[in-house]
């Protein structure tokens, strides 16, 4: 009996899941760069619109290339259904907003990517949705925040940029006891190292712009969950409001998935080597790397993640001036606000991704002026270490 792709190991699913071959039997997945579809009869067209015929209608709703990308992600993540979106933020905003109405309440971890924080703190309240921010690592704060109208919990783990790890099973339990769902942004962990649905989360979102593309080419996002959640809350919202992904971008991401496992493993090995070198470096005041025993939540990392991270966080002694000197001295790693790329990228969160925050809020999150986020790429680890240590000499 032949196995269904969903029963193979993740590496095999990354290459084969979801492939739909056309009548030409192409090896590589076809790019269906089409807005719409034609019907062989008015009756077939009517049946398609009534949902009695499963074919495609319009690429704002679905498209064969997009369907391949979604199916491959579904089988990788162990979800029942998915809808992809134009960007990671389109996926985050839709996953949070689509199921809610005025009068509902959302609880979220305070340590969020700046745009996710904007959605929670600024956008939702404008539409009558109450929000509460908590210290994500403090389970009592999640518990105390629950109200009768709480519908959604939202978190990132590891967090951006300080790589704190939050207890997904315990937070899911608190959410479910309170009648709420847990939405996890799994960008920093990647589907290779963490499966939030298996840990108790109800919805997973990705910025596919990051590791899934991983080669700096295009933006994309995806929401994965149960059949019921996608059908009831997401499908119609996306179909009518239109934050859909382009088939071209879905094709790039689909091909990106084929090498995701290899890339994430290599980038994680490199990040771990960089972390080990920085841990004892005299110019470094603080090092954070999920995967090292000195990570504040090392036991939790072992429990809920299968590997460390492609990212390393560190604080350079001497504040912003020293951090800027390091960034400007680096020859190989490039200054950027992106992450998860084949090229190593360095970010100064205080002046970029998190500059919108008040200084005291940044300080509370551990984003000091000397803090740098290093996203390890696919270069040789020794070249990156030589580049970093030479730059640190100048700090
Ligand atoms: C944790 C996290 N979530 C969401 C996003 C948004 O993704 P995108 O840039 O694809 O909209 C980003 C990065 O930009 C991110 O780092």
From TrEMBL:
Documented EC number(s): 2.5.1.-
Catalytic activity, reaction form: O-succinyl-L-homoserine + hydrogen sulfide = L-homocysteine + succinate
Pathway connected to this protein: Amino-acid biosynthesis; L-methionine biosynthesis via de novo pathway; L-homocysteine from O-succinyl-L-homoserine: step 1/1
EC class: transferase
Name of the featured protein: O-succinylhomoserine sulfhydrylase
InterPro entries documented for this protein: Cys/Met-Metab_PyrdxlP-dep_enz (IPR000277), O-succ-hSer_sulfhydrylase (IPR006234), PyrdxlP-dep_Trfase (IPR015424), PyrdxlP-dep_Trfase_major (IPR015421), PyrdxlP-dep_Trfase_small (IPR015422)
Subunit structure: Homotetramer.
Gene designation: metZ
């Amino acid at each position: 009996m032949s196995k269904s792709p969903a029963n193979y190991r993740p590496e095999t699913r990354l290459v084969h899941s979801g492939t739909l071959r056309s009548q030409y039997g192409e090896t590589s997945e076809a790019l269906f760069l089409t807005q719409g579809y034609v019907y062989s009869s008015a009756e077939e067209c009517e049946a398609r619109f009534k949902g009695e015929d499963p074919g495609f209608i319009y690429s704002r709703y679905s498209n064969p290339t997009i369907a391949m990308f979604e199916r491959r992600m579904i089988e990788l993540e162990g979800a029942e259904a998915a809808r992809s979106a134009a960007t990671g933020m389109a996926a985050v905003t839709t996953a949070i907003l689509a199921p809610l109405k005025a009068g509902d309440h959302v609880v979220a971890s305070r340590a969020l990517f700046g745009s996710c924080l904007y959605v929670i703190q600024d956008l939702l309240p404008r539409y009558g949705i109450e929000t509460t921010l908590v210290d994500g690592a403090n389970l009592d704060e999640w518990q105390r925040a629950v109200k009768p109208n709480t519908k959604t919990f939202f978190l990132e783990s590891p967090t951006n940029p300080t790589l704190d790890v939050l207890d997904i099973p315990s937070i899911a339990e608190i959410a479910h006891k309170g009648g709420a769902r847990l939405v996890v942004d799994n960008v920093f962990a990647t589907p290779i190292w963490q499966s939030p649905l298996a840990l108790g989360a109800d919805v997973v979102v990705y910025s596919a712009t990051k590791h899934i593309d991983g080669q700096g080419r295009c933006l994309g996002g995806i929401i994965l969950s149960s059949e019921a959640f996608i059908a009831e809350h997401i499908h119609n919202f996306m179909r009518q409001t239109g934050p859909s992904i382009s088939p071209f971008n879905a094709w790039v991401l689909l091909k990106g998935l084929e090498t995701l496992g290899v890339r994430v493993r290599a980038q994680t090995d490199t990040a771990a080597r960089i972390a080990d070198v920085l841990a004892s470096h005299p110019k470094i005041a603080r090092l954070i790397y999920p995967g090292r025993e000195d990570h504040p939540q090392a036991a939790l990392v072992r429990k809920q993640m299968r590997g460390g991270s492609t990212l390393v966080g560190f604080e350079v002694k001497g504040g912003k001036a020293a951090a800027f000197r390091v960034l400007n001295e680096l020859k190989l790693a490039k200054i950027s606000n992106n992450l998860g790329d084949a090229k190593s990228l360095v970010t100064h969160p205080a002046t970029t991704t998190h500059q919108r925050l008040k200084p005291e809020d940044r300080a509370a999150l551990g984003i000091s002026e000397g803090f740098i986020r290093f996203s390890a790429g696919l270069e040789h680890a020794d070249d990156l270490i030589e580049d970093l240590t030479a730059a640190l000499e100048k700090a």
